Amino acid sequence: MTDIAAVVLAAGKGKRMKSDLAKVLHTLFGRPMIEYLIDTLISLNIKKIVIVIGHQAELVTATLGKYQGKIEFALQAEQLGTGHAVLVTEEALSGFSGDILVTAGDVPFLTGETIAKLLAVHRREKASATVLSSIPPDPAGYGRVIRFPGTDLVDRIVEHKDADEDQRKIGEINSGTFCFDSQCLFAALRRIRADNSQNEYYLTDVMEILRGQGHKAAVCLADDPDEVLGVNSSEQLTELEARFGQKAGFRAPIGRQERIKK
């Protein structure tokens, strides 16, 4: 995938993690969760991987030192939202003209197969932006994907806190992973406004901005909703470890984590 770059959002503290440690450095099976995603991106031969750092930036860069030469960093000095986080990568990606994958460092089990599927839908639909979606058992708290009926095209994405009663009944949610045409992305990011309940610059607003300019915005539904689960709390981290432990043959004894030897 030499015609694609990746942006990994890893600047947040994670207010509900009950720790000052940068969220992406919390461990799953003894490894910082972000490492699983980085390994996947490297395996795909992605041309450039940019990690957006902020909270505990020096610790994050030091922890990921073993990837020197394979990744680079962009600093988000103030955490002003996901749209702002991607915007700070503009200099690092200057001159790049392919597609840009944007994902979060707290989604450790996103697979290469799903990334390839997302890119295939993005290119099949000739979209300027494509969101990876899922249909979890409980969509509460997630942004809802508003499709044009009967298509893989998106009208807009509405964050849960900004959604009305009917929109909250929609089961398809934004996973937080996107593919963008680099030629459109940064101009659209500069048009985002923070006029929402969080007073943040939402990356999801890019979809509606691009559609308003006559570009296509598409959606790709993940086959396994578990795969795109992120971590927003210490409880979710424990749940994710248990869920994937059952799938992959891992267990996490009290005080340590290890692979089951068969």
Which keywords apply here?
262 residues, Spore Coat Polysaccharide Biosynthesis Protein SpsA, Chain A, two-stranded antiparallel ribbon, 13 strands, disordered C terminus
Describe the overall structure.
The structure is a single chain. By secondary structure, the protein is an alpha/beta fold. The protein has one domain: Spore Coat Polysaccharide Biosynthesis Protein SpsA, Chain A. Helix content is 26%, strand content 23%. It contains seven helices and 13 strands. It has helices at 33-43, 57-63, 82-87, 112-124, 182-189, 205-212, 234-248, and strands spanning 4-10, 27-28, 31-32, 48-53, 72-75, 99-104, 129-134, 144-147, 154-158, 173-181, 217-221, 250-251, 258-259. Strands 5-4-1-6-10-7-11 form a seven-stranded mixed β-sheet.
CATH architecture: Alpha-Beta Complex
Along the chain, the helix and strand elements come as EEEHEHEHEHEEEEHHEHEE
The overall strand count is: 13
Rg from Cα: 18 Å
Question: What is the helix tally?
Answer: 7
Low-pLDDT residue spans: 251-262
Integer count of domains? 1
Helical residue percent? 25-40%
Q: What is the CATH homologous superfamily assignment? A: Spore Coat Polysaccharide Biosynthesis Protein SpsA, Chain A
Write the CATH fold name.
Spore Coat Polysaccharide Biosynthesis Protein SpsA, Chain A
| Broad CATH class | Alpha Beta
Strands ordered across the widest β-sheet: 5-4-1-6-10-7-11
Q: Pairing-aware structural class of the strands and helices?
A: alpha/beta
